[in-house]
Amino acid sequence: MDPELLLSEYLGSEYIVFDPELIIKIGEKHPELDLFLKQKQVSTWAFITAYNPKSKLLSPEENRLRNQNLEKEIARFEFKKGVGRKGNWSEESYLVLGGSLDFVLNLGRKFDQNAFVYGEIDSEAKLIFCNSGFAH
Asked: What Pfam families does the database record attribute to this sequence (predicted)?
C-alpha cells in the first residue's frame, strides 16, 4: 500500500473503545481516557490489532485467530475491546493499559502490523509505525 495513502487511512480513522465508551483520534488529547488511566493507576495505553497483517486482507476466521493470539500476549495487562474504524472498514482491536512503548512496538512487529496508536496521560494520541518506531 502507498505510504501516504496508508498514513491518510490511519489519521482518518476512529479508534473506538466499547467499555468505557471512548473515541480516540490521532493527534488529539482525550481527557476521558486520561481519567480512566488515572483510575486504573497506569500512565500509558496502546490501541492495537492483529487483523490484516501489513494491510493484507485475511478472512474473518484468520483475523479472529490472530486476535485470539494477540489477546494471549496482552493477558498480563488490563485491556478493553474495541474497533478501529473508517467508513465501512473496521478491525477488532484492543486498548491495552500500561504497556511500555517498546513492548507494544515489539508486539506490533510480531503480528506484522504497519502501525498502532499509543499515548500517555495528558498527551496526544500518536501513530507509531512498527517498521521504524517513528511517531506521527
From this structure: DUF3293
pTM over 0.85: yes
pLDDT tens track for 97-136: 999 999 999 999 999 999 999 999 999 999 999 998 778 7
How do the domains of the chain map onto residue ranges?
3-129
List CB contacts of 130: < 8 A, sequence separation 6 or more: 105, 108, 109, 113, 114, 115, 116
Residue 120 buriedness (CB in 10 A; 0-12 / 13-18 / 19+): middle
Cis peptide before 20 (omega within 30 of 0): yes
* Structural contact between residues 117 and 45, judged by C-beta atoms closer than 8 angstroms: no
